[in-house]
Amino acid sequence: MSKVPGLLGALGAGLTRMGERLDERRVETEARADADAGLDGAARPARSDDSAVAAAVPSQAPVAVSSQVPAAGPAQAPAAVPSQEPSAAEAEESAATGSARQVAPDHVPAPPAYAPAVAARPDPVAAVPWGMRVAAEIGWRLLVLAGTLWVLMRVISAVRLVVLAFVAALFITALLQPTVSRLTRRGLPRGLATAVTAILGFIVMGLIGWFVVWQVMDNLDTLSDKVRAGIEELKRWLLNSPFHVTEDQINQVAKNLSDTIGHNTNEITSAGLQGVTVLVEVLTGILLAMFSTLFLLYDGKNIWHWVLRLVPEQARPAMEGAGPRAWRTLTAYVRGTVIVALIDAIFIGLGIYFLHVPMAVPLAVFIFLFAFIPLVGAVISGALAVVVALVTEGVFTAVMVLAVVLLVQQIEGHVLQPFILGRAVRVHPLAVVLSVAAGGLIGGIGGSVVAVPLVAVTNTVVGYLRATAKENALRASEGPPEP
User: Fold this and answer.
1) Contact 359, 328 (CB under 8 A)
2) What's a Pfam family in this record (predicted)?
3) Distances (CA, A) of 69 to 79, 83, 173, 200
4) How far is CA 478 from each of CA 193, 318, 471, 475, 481, rounded to the nearest angstrom?
5) Which 8-state DSSP code applies to residue 167?
6) Is 271 exposed, middle or buried (0-12, 13-18, 19+ CB in 10 A)?
7) pLDDT tens readout for residues 21-54
8) Is the alpha carbon torsion for 358, 361, 362, 368 positive or negative?
């Protein structure tokens, strides 16, 4: 048992020597790494775990263990064990090397040669193809534009009566403004010229409407008698036709029509009430159009200047130049359409009159009004005249009316419109058809009437703004003029 303390002491001494050797090797490895980085091993900053090593091993040499040092008295202890505290020179050198290590930049070692090369990830924007990026940019702008148009259409449909009344006032103003300007140049005050022109214009339109209603009411009995006679003639033709239609089948069809009218009395009554509502709306729209026409004729320039104040200041000069050109386009369209419609109504009305078709004058007025709907209006009015001639006068008269209508419309399309309208409102026929269809779907008959002049005015404004932008860009590229 007396040998156990000696064995434990020897084991502890061996472990102590092993720990000291490991610390020496770690210090040497760190010094070699600092030397490879271009720094002196002595300039490496002191670490917390190196302080213990420096205290135990001041000169990086092995230290004799206590078992190898002879016992000494208290006076010999300082000579046997070196001092743990560094001298003043060593402290000053350590401070200088520490400050140098703090100033030196951090060193990032290069990856080893066996490490695989990893490419940097590209920017997500650069990873998207150019065509897709362009399509996305165009797409979200189209979405914003479509949303804006949708909101605008909703607002217009909510106040459709006011919009249609104002558009009608614009058309009437474009038709009557030359008369106001002519009277003003001859010395009449602006207000008096406006009043005279507006009153005369409204009186003429009222007389035309009264004349149409009077003709319809006057010829209604004759028309009803001729319709009955035409139905009887159609019945006889069906009985003698090769379709083998019997009288019982014709009577059954007539009975079904009568029963349908009897069972749908409530719907007919509600339709009549709805017709009264429509009549009230029409009268309200006429009053709005009259007042708007008066103000536009008298104070149109000031109204346009007020509208320009709502435009941003940068775009104001371009819009100020586009406004008069748009108004000239609208005026040319309205005048040309009125002249063409008047010629159609006169010649087709004369043909219907000489063919002894009843209600020639009301049919001529309908042809004049429907001429404001391009392409579609001529077809509807001509078909109405042919149907009336077929029911009242027979097949031969209907064919002759159809020939007259086609002849006049061909002259209109190939001679009158190119000569009267000219290049001021020239729009491609495909654009005319699409705009009339879209206008009819959105606003009914009023939308069909407004569609083509709106497209013509938009074409004029866009062309002028594009030309102005090119001119400004060319002027900016040339630079300021030399003095």
Assistant:
1) no
2) AI-2E_transport
3) 11, 16, 125, 138
4) 49, 20, 11, 5, 8
5) H
6) exposed
7) 888 888 888 777 777 665 444 444 444 444 443 4
8) positive
